[in-house]
Amino acid sequence: MTEMTASAAPFRRPDLSEAHLRRRYSAERRFKAYGIFAIAAATAMLLVLLSSIVAKGYTAFSQTYIALDIALDADRIDPSGDQDPQVLRKVKYQPLAKAALRDRFPEVSGRRDKRALSKLISGSADVTLRKFVMANPDTIGTTQTIWVKASDEIDSLRKGHVDRGAQESDRLVSDQALEWFDHLETDGAVDLRFNTTFFTAGDSREPEQAGIWGATVGSFLMLIVTLALSFPVGVLSAVYLEEFAPKNRWTDFIEVNINNLAAVPSIVFGLLGLAVFLNFFGLPRSAPLAGGMVLALMTLPTIIIAARAALKAVPPSIREAALGVGASKLQTVTHHVLPLAMPGVLTGTILGSARALGETAPLLMIGMVAFIVDIPGGFTDPATALPVQIYLWADSPERAFVEKTSAAIIVLLGFLIMMNAIAVLLRKRFERRW
Amino acid sequence: MSLLILATTLFLLSVAGFYLGRGRAFAVSGGQLRDLHSRPQYYGMYVALWCGLPSLVLLCLWLALEPEITELILVANLPASAQGMSQDQLALFINQIKNLANGNAFGAVSAEIESAAKDYASLRDTGFAAMTVIVLALGICGLAFGRRSITPAMRARNQVEKVVSVVMMVASTIAIVTTVGIVLSLLFEALRFFTKVPPMDFLFGLQWSPQTALREDQVGGSGAFGAIPLFAGTLLITFIAMCVAVPVGLFSAIYMSEYAGPKMRAIVKPVLEVLAGIPTVVYGFFAALTMAPFFRQVGEFLNLDVSSESALVAGIVIGVMSIPFVSSLSDDVMNSVPQTLRDGAYALGATKSETIKQVVVPAALPGIVGSVLLAISRAIGETMIVVMAAGLAANLTANPLEAVTTVTVQIVTLLVGDQEFDSAKTLAAFALGLVLFLVTLALNVVALRVVRKYREKYD
To answer: What pTM, to 2 d.p., does this model score?
Structure first.
């Protein structure tokens, strides 16, 4: 046996020549370079991703306004002259804004041109004017300079998203509108202001009137449901499994289940929610209640695993000391072990809910993709969530929604960064090593 | 909303029970607290539990059973003309009544429906009022009973602890209930699908066109449910993703654990993990609006026809997302390879890279394989990126520049939008979900097995 191996692999002198050593060293350098290259590639990808989104999205935080000298015609707004708010509320104000635009450009004639002209301003001028008149009823009958929102095409033009050199047919804005816009701009009647609508409005088909507040409230309601369900259940089951459960087949089975659930694709939870919560229990579709329940099931394994790790990190001496002075098992856990493990448990919970906040796929399954304009007022109202809103806007054909989508992503990432920062702080501040 | 008020009332009642019970304990002890078996707050909790638990159980039972029972009563009270209806007609009829009762009237309704809806609404109102009274009465009775049964010798703490441990046990079984729920709901709907489409046609068919006609006169495909193109598309995209994630993740892990100093590690590791924390919908947006046009331009430059929904783009972006899954776990296992093994290799004259290639990586191989398997399972189940960046049409091809569709994309397209719950089209989504669940489950189990079984123990 030994002879055979000896003859098969005769002793080979190591090649210690300069050339061989150089080859080995250059292989060493190459190998190290691969590592640096891999890390650089991953980091570069992250930077490209973030910078492309910021570059696309930051313009959505401002909105173009156009100043119009609007004649608040008393005959049309308030024929009786008693400034009755009921009457003022029902007046159609958009024609006033259109009339002001036509006065601004008296040379425009023909129905098509006039219609094109009125498309410079947003349909929300109606609301702006109504608010103005309701707040200052004394101005009825006078002519006021009022800033109204520009339409999304003009907004894109002002922000430089429209290529002026392109053929008219390839361009979002016609030559005519370009000329009008330049006139307005040289007169100082165009201004870029902070876009409050984006943070206060619900969804809309018109990009300049669309906002993320509805989706943010929906996400928030959903997160409340998720936390209210998954935190107590997660902590209770972690305490049971870590402190009380006997080591037997049943608890092993529970553990296997938890580990597997943590790796089940999120869309499968969506299917579960559709089949069980909606079709079997008859919960309302598109409601934060159902969405929160699905997300709670999804985050539960994360919380249990994190809570168990935190409980495990509490040294047994603490338990023994408490038991030694006569505390019952439950008293030991609730008075001593759990409070000491709490920072770890909370960190895991925050990280789990950050993941839930960014989750989209299961929500699509339970009908949260509906187009919802109203701000949800309760757990059973139809609502949408921030990531779903991003998905919906990303699908919209209007160019102006690209910047809204990116801006919504910036807001979502802002929330996630905040939650992760809190988790890191918690860990840094309260983590104890025994 | 009134349900919320009821729940709040019940909660407040329990809180009141706590203070009443505690006060009672003080009273029966006659100022001698050491005569009590347990500390006074345990008596308080005992009363609170007696007050809150039975009524809460009743409330939950009512919530679960009420819709079924009222519907039964509704059907029983319907006029004779409605009793003779077929199953589907009756369901539609009941739906109309319910909608009207809930205040969502669609168009004109007959007087029959209107009166039934009125009855239904009043039935529900009476039911709710009765339930409220009973639940509150039960709460008050429980409170009174609990409070009366307090004596100094009563073992309040043991009783409370027994209830708490039962609650904990129930909480820990929720993980099992969820798994069972997933399996049953998928299996049940998938079986209904397989009564319409034979399993063999589904698993091995080469045609996928689920757009069936809803009505007889509608123009639509006859509906073909051969899932092979979906499986092939999923595999193609996963393969591309792993081509990105495995080398980048592995080499990052090697660099982090073997070359980088603690300072660099402290920066690089969180940066890579950020990649896993970014919501997938953001990756999807990035893939569809930044990567896809970029690849199209590159393709035009090279005279290649790149589809705007190519498998390549979706795969690369999923790969980028999966980098941290590979790198994090691989880094951990390589770190746990003992230093003595490396020192032994150095002593034999190996360079650092030779040590890594011939000692560290082989020693850490089970963990690395496990991490790759987990990354594959994530990539297969990934939904948003492919929904936004991959195609919709089933396309059996191995060309990464063409558009392919995946299992998850089809689940989403089948279930989003108008749906008729009994059609093969929607049920197909559950069959696909079952396949997805089983495949990812198998991958996870295998990954955990590999990590556990082949892990070398050095201590």
So the answer is: 0.87
Residue B321 with chain A: CB contacts under 8 Å: none
Mark yes or no for CB contact B172/A245 under 8 Å: yes
Q: Domain count of chain B?
A: 2
Assigned token pair, B154: 């009563």
Domain stops at, among B171, B187, B203: B171
Predicted-assembly ipTM surpassing the 0.85 threshold: yes
Is B284 within a domain?
yes
CA–CA gap between residue A37 and residue B56 (Å, rounded): 60
Domain that holds residue B273: 224-453
Distances (CA, A) of A191 to A181, A184, B268: 11, 10, 43
C-alpha to C-alpha distance for B126 and B132, rounded to whole angstroms: 10
Domains of chain A (ranges; CATH) run: 64-195 (no CATH), 213-430 (1.10.3720.10)
- Each residue's pLDDT expressed in tens, for chain A with a length of 434 residues: 444 544 556 677 767 788 888 999 999 999 999 999 999 999 999 999 999 999 988 888 888 898 888 888 888 777 777 777 888 888 888 888 888 888 888 888 888 888 888 888 888 888 888 888 888 888 888 888 888 888 888 888 888 888 887 887 778 788 888 888 888 888 888 888 888 888 988 888 888 888 899 999 999 999 999 999 999 999 999 999 999 988 888 888 888 889 888 889 999 999 999 888 888 887 888 889 999 999 999 999 999 999 999 999 999 999 999 999 999 999 999 999 999 999 999 999 999 999 999 999 999 988 888 888 888 888 888 889 999 999 999 988 787 888 899 999 999 999 999 999 999 888 888 877 77
In this structure, are B323 and B426 located in the same domain?
A: yes
Nearest-CA distance B188 → chain A (Å): 10
CA distances from A343 to A316, A356, B335 (A): 18, 20, 26
B395: helix, strand or coil: coil
CB nearest to A46's CB, from B174, B274, B436: B274
